[in-house]
Amino acid sequence: MVGNFRFAVGSLNAKTIMFSGNHLFAALGLFLLTLLGFWGGGRLLKRFRRRSPGNLTGAPVTPPTAAEKQLAAAESKLLRTYFRGLSYVLANETDKAVAEFVKVAQVNTTTAEIYLALGQLYRNSGEVERAIRVHRDILLRPNLPDDVRRQTFFEIGLDYKKAGFLDRACRTFEEILEHNPSDQASRKQLSSIYVSMREWEKALSLYKDKSGSRNDAHIIAHLTTEVAKNHARLGAKDKALVLFKKAIKLDGKCVDVWLHYGDFLLQDDRVSEALAAWEKAFLINPEFVTQVVERIEKIPAAEKDVILDDFFQRHQENYGGLRKFNLAYINRLINSGKTEAAGLQLKQELASNCGDGETFSLVKRLLRLMPAENSEQNHIQSLVEDLIAADFSFEKRYYCRKCGFKLDRIACKCPRCSSWDSITVR
Asked: Which CATH architecture does the domain made up of 2-177 adopt?
């Protein structure tokens, strides 16, 4: 197994990692141009200088031999293959790019960088097993330069991550960091895996050990919140409280921190403080009004109605133009039995433009206002609700502002593009 390889490394930094993340196209282009410069271009330039009429050395111009013509033709063909492969990469036609680079690799079997690029193309086209096999073969080469060996281990870690072998990917990146703790590329990959595995304390330790981590304060706040939640679940309330306050100090504008801090306070029967925390979350981002209202509804029934009515009355003037606020308010009116007021509010909302998901929400609320005068009508209404729910079951409640990925639940980090604080409500 590749994970069993042990190696001594020197300095591995972001410049060493040529083919990572979303920089595949630029990196591959740079790699090809560099490779062409020292491998093909140098030879062609040398012959050009030797035979050019403007040769400053005064050397006699001699016609090329048959062997030189054959070599020049082979090099020209290889150059065309290089650039054809590059054009396929830039056009996002990975399968065709792989085919061209396989041809190059068959001609030039000594250059490990070609196989590194080929392995990454395999990985990005979904052929992870082939990518792993190509990268393992590189490690078996004798006298492999240290920088190529380090790069290959990094690529294997990415292969494992892409394949879903998170334990193996963890071991690979942990080994790289063991020998070079300053390797930020591997640190980023490992922290991402820890988050995926919900190993919050391990992920937090990576960010806390990072120099200049103030730029990542919002991420550290999220991770600290998760660790605090774990302590709260285990009954370590004092430790959880300290961590929640630390998260707030790190990033006082983090909605996630305030929402869960309020949850923690409510569990300790500190209702007024919990309400203040949720109110803070709402004021930071009113788009999360539904999450706040859902939490208020968890408090004792005797207080809940008064608090909710007060909440909507206080914020109606400033946020009455926000659709999500109005939908939450309509839902509150329906739950309170104020059907006439809910109907008027719905009429105003339907007069404006609605997206599919929001239209669905309004239709569901309209159905709840329909009077069920007899059992047959009640049955029909129930069938209509089920039909609409089934038809719109694909609608996700949350989405990522960066990549558009849709989710069923709120998350601090997008599962697709790994962006923090990019998930919002539809």
From this structure: Alpha Horseshoe (1.25)
